[in-house]
Design a protein that fits this description.
By secondary structure, the protein is mainly alpha-helical. The chain has a domain of 330 residues: Na+/H+ antiporter like fold. The protein is built from 20 helices and no strands. Keywords: Membrane, Transmembrane, Transmembrane helix. InterPro entries: Na+/solute_symporter_sf, Put_Na-Bile_cotransptr. It holds the Pfam family SBF_like.
Length: 485
């Protein structure tokens, strides 16, 4: 009797515990579904703020990324606004005595940090590539200034309705050397030859101390003569004290550059750590912004922008963009010599590799504010202080535009370099005969009973690279070396 009751109770217990899904009643399913819905709605209500927080964090991350990448452009805008609203602070003879604290102190700091940043060992590796360096410097310091000088003379002859000081500023901007750092960064990002870019950044700024004042001195007379008579440009004329200019540029630019380079050579590791820890490149950029602030403060205080309209600024921006794109294309054409490959023998001898071409493009077409603004200050230090601001405007706009257009070029040139590397790999493999023939039937190759080729069936040189190329696998690091075009 007890056994029977125990079996019945155990069977009832089992049936209650192991109820199959099919045994659930429709009412219970509906109740469970409604409970689940109510639970989900409560959770969703509590999760809504977190979703908003996630969106806020994403927006914040994007904004911070843009600020960290383009903070210099924002700082440039702030410097111009401060000069516009408070010109008495940083003008010549103003509260901070900018003629000494900024136009001497900031410039010396900029080029001292440049000397610390130039890696001497990398410069030594590429110093003997004389033809490459000569091509870049001739384009940057002779061809481009000559082209812009002729273009501005043509504008004057055509009586284009543009401010004459801005047009003269275009010629001065074209006469400055290549940038100190941004061309090296963009060359590296595009997988170009960083060492060549670094070498020509240093060489160009040293040559610019002597060449740029000479170019401005030569161009100044014809430009003033070609200016329409109703344009007040006499403040941009006058005699350039070439010896005095070289002396001041030597003290503020060359000496700090050499001293920084000597310190970098003697204490390479310590300087590298200090540069990262103290963010010396950002300190140099801030010093440059103070120089721009001072220059525009002088221009606003003297009322020099009263004759410059918004149409003039837009026109200069369009001209700058056209010049940068044209000079980049010219540099690419002269360096890569785009004949059908391989082309004539003379083209093969003169053609540069794709990484070298990238370095040539960035170093030839870019112009430096760090050298250009001090140069304009020294050249016209005895003239109207406000003139310097107007003459500097085309160079400042060109600097901003070359950063924007240069970064757009980075991805295009990077793909072009990689495509050339892949073409060279395939060409090298074809020249060395690394081609796997079409497979034959097993019985024809190894006999009727063979289903796998023995390891000795392949030639010894078909180890990794040939098979990798045939199957689409990237070639091994031990594959034959190749030269980039």
């Amino acid at each position: 009797m007890n056994d029977t009751k125990w079996k019945a109770s155990s069977s009832n217990f089992a049936s209650e515990v192991t109820i199959p899904k099919a045994a659930l009643s429709p009412s219970s399913l509906k109740r469970k579904h409604s409970i689940a819905n109510s639970t989900y709605s409560e959770k969703s209500a509590t999760l809504t703020p977190s979703r908003n927080v996630t969106v806020y964090q994403k927006i914040k991350s994007v904004v911070l990324t843009l600020l960290s990448k383009y903070w210099f452009l924002l700082g440039l805008a702030i410097a111009i606004i401060l000069a516009w609203q408070f010109p008495d602070v940083a003008k010549k003879g103003g509260y901070i005595r900018a003629e000494w604290s900024v136009k001497w102190g900031a410039v010396i700091l900029i080029f001292f940090i440049s000397g610390l940043s130039l890696r001497t060992k990398i410069l030594a590796q590429t110093v003997l590539r004389i033809r490459l360096h000569m091509m870049i410097q001739v384009m940057n310091l002779l061809i481009i200034p000559g082209v812009v000088f002729g273009l501005v003379l043509l504008f004057f002859k055509m009586h284009m309705p543009l401010n004459s000081l801005l047009l003269i500023g275009l010629v001065i901007a074209a006469s400055t050397p290549t940038t100190v750092s941004s061309n090296v960064v963009m060359t590296k990002n595009a997988d170009g030859n960083e060492a060549s870019a670094l070498m020509n950044a240093a060489l160009g700024n040293v040559l610019g101390i002597f060449v740029s004042p000479a170019l401005v001195s030569v161009f100044q007379g014809p430009l003033i003569d070609a200016t329409p008579e109703d344009e007040p440009t006499t403040q941009a004329g006058g005699h350039v004290d070439f010896v005095g200019v070289l002396k001041q540029l030597g003290i503020t630019v060359l000496v700090p550059l050499v001293v920084g380079q000597i310190i970098q050579w003697l204490f390479t590791e310590k300087v590298a750590k200090i540069k990262v820890k103290c963010r010396l490149s950002d300190v140099s950029s801030v010093a440059l912004l103070t120089l721009v602030w001072s220059v525009f403060s002088d221009a606003v205080a003297a009322g020099s922008f009263s004759s410059v309209s918004a149409v003039d600024i837009v026109a200069v921006m369009i001209i700058n963009a056209g010049l940068y794109i044209s000079f980049s294309i010219m540099a690419w054409f002269l360096a890569s010599i785009p004949f059908p490959f391989p082309g004539p023998r003379w083209a093969q001898r003169l053609r540069y590799s794709r990484p070298d071409t990238v370095a040539i493009m960035y170093c030839a077409a870019t112009k430096t504010v760090a050298m250009g603004v001090p140069l304009i200050n020294v050249l016209y230090q005895h003239g109207d202080p406000g003139t310097i601001g107007v003459l500097s405007t085309p160079l400042l706009l060109y600097h901003v535009e070359q950063l924007i257009l240069g970064n757009i070029e980075v991805e295009i040139l990077k793909k072009w370099v990689h495509r050339g590397q892949q073409d060279d790999i395939e060409k090298q493999q074809q020249e060395e005969g690394i081609v796997i023939p079409a497979p034959l039937h097993d019985e024809d190759m190894y006999g009727s009973g063979t289903t796998q080729a023995p390891s000795s069936g392949l030639p010894s040189h078909l180890g990794q690279s040939g098979v990798a190329h045939q199957s689409g696998i990237p070639p091994s690091p031990f594959a034959p070396t190749h030269h980039f075009r």
